[in-house]
Amino acid sequence: MTTIAPIASAKPEAAPRSERVGVLLVNLGTPDTADARGVRVYLKEFLSDPRVIEDQGLLWQLILNGIILRRRPRIKARDYRKIWNVEKNESPLKTVTRAQAEKLARAIADHDHVEVGWAMRYGNPSIRVGIDALMARGCDRLLVVPLYPQYSAATSATVCDEVFRVLASLRAQPTLRVSPPYYDDPNYVDAVAASIEAHLATLTFKPELLVASFHGMPRDYVDKGDPYEGQCIATVQALRKRLGLDDGKLLLTFQSRFGNAEWLQPYTDKTIARLAKDGVRRIAVVMPGFAADCLETLEEIAQENAEIFRHNGGEAFSAIPCLNDSEAGIDVISQLVLRELQGWI
To answer: Is the sign of the CA dihedral 137, 334, 165, 16 positive or negative?
Structure first.
């Protein structure tokens, strides 16, 4: 028989229920400094994640510690210095992600019990620091927003892994939600399409075609079930429909391959070189898989691939900025957040 304890004998709660909601924006990460030491620390954390490099066995450890971390930090540090925010002494990704969080807070300020924070999966501020800060502000419910339009295990899933590791160390855990990918969300597709149209209107030349470049991943990861490639394809198909372009005028490519394994194809650099050799003289490149400009967009595409295009005979090249903390970009994030907070606000 079930009995109900009298109110007088019930123990009071240790603390009153705070009923505040935390929103944590999370992006990939960045070195703290644009020198070899800072990049080495960052790469060590990044490349030691089994979501990024699945085989973390002895051979990989020898390659990572004996070759990559000895040579690559100096090379990548030079690349970071090309795009570094000297005024704030930080990478553009950190500058933009902070601005996204600040503007999101203002955009949803009428929900005065919602707190907004931001973090990086690798580097600083860490996810642990971000969660601790929100809980210190009284949040007992948490929405984590991985800033990746397309899901992959190497991006969205590893954010969740780290969030769960942090929560596993807490006795009083916040109630958790994680926002889904938004690769075909009409608001996102329209915002990217509008940003393309606005950027093209500022150019002194008319591109013969557009290239949509996404971060690559090993083909093997997709063959094992990662949905990333299919979601990239869906994004480009939606953009083609919205812009009224066929597959010959908006190409899909994958950049940033690493190592000797086969990655998702076609490769961005090889495609851009081929286009120039085939007589294409004017192109623009959009990066719909990035919520914020970073090394891969500002240096790899806007500088390195621009040089590849010109070296092979191309004449005019333009990299279209990511949505970043633009009004349209913040609207995409705020609409996603408000949708996922239903029932909490």
So the answer is: positive
Whole-model pTM: value is 0.93
Q: How many CB atoms lie within 10 A of CB 340?
A: 17
Residue 200, exposed/middle/buried by CB under 10 A (0-12, 13-18, 19+)?
middle
For residues 289 and 27, give the distance between their C-alpha atoms in angstroms, rounded to a whole number: 12
**Distance linking the first and last C-alpha atoms of the chain:** 38
Helix (H, G, I), strand (E, B) or coil at 54: coil
The Cα–Cα gap between 122 and 240 comes to 34
**Phi, psi torsion values for 81, nearest 5 degrees:** -65, -25
Alpha-carbon gap, residue 234 to 181, rounded angstroms? 12
Distance between CA atoms of residues 75 and 35, nearest Å? 9
Using CA atoms, how far apart are residues 209 and 76, in angstroms rounded to an integer?
A: 30
Q: What letter would DSSP give residue 233?
A: H
The alpha carbon of residue 177 and the mean position of all alpha carbons in its chain are separated, in whole angstroms, by 18
pLDDT tens profile 215-249: 999 999 999 999 999 999 999 999 999 999 999 99
